[in-house]
Amino acid sequence: MDKTIDAIVEGGKATPGPPLAPALAPLGVNIGQVVAKINESTKDFSGMKVPVKITVNTKTKTFEVEVGSPPTAELIKKEAKVEKGSGTKDRVGNLSIQSVVKIAKQKKTTSLGKTIKDIAKEVVGSCVSMGIAVEGKDPREVEKDIGAKKYDSVLTE
Predict the structure, then answer these.
(1) Would residue 29 count as lying in a domain?
(2) Residue 19: cis peptide before it, omega within 30 degrees of 0
(3) Reading across the β-sheet that carries 62-67, which strands appear in turn?
(4) Residues 29-82: tens digit of each pLDDT
(5) How far, rounded to the nearest angstrom, does the alpha carbon of residue 14 sit from its chain's CA centroid?
(6) The pTM is what?
(7) DSSP 137
(8) Which of 130, 109, 104 is nearest to 119 (CA)?
(9) Among candidates 42, 155, 71, which has minimal Cα distance to 105?
(10) Which of 60, 76, 129, 144 is least crowded, fewest Cβ atoms below 10 Å from its Cβ?
């Protein structure tokens, strides 16, 4: 019988404490091995919160770790090199359209958008609420520009 545990950990820095240990201990798996596997799988997301799904076979005590995509806000903060969004009308950072495309491609498997262009609009929309400019402009302007096909040359699959 398989048990699944969902957790959010800091990329490459999971520890054998909470939230993992209390969930894994009753299942009888080696927590150290699970943590090592999670850290190996999430090392590319260092400094970001990453969702992970751990599936444990309770009979054989084997496990699988599946790493999800970090939230869009985490990817935006990393690209813009900011600690957190502003939460006000103040601009705290700026993204290039290339960074928006990079984030959109990372979100492709988890987004509801059908194309990179759709997902880029979602990313730019997140920038609005975080106080992050895009190409030095208000993200709402860039969203209109995307709709007007101004950035079609870079918004490719």
Answers:
(1) yes
(2) yes
(3) 2-10, 49-57, 62-67
(4) 999 999 999 999 988 888 888 899 999 998 998 999 998 888 898 899 989 988
(5) 16
(6) 0.72
(7) B
(8) 104
(9) 155
(10) 60
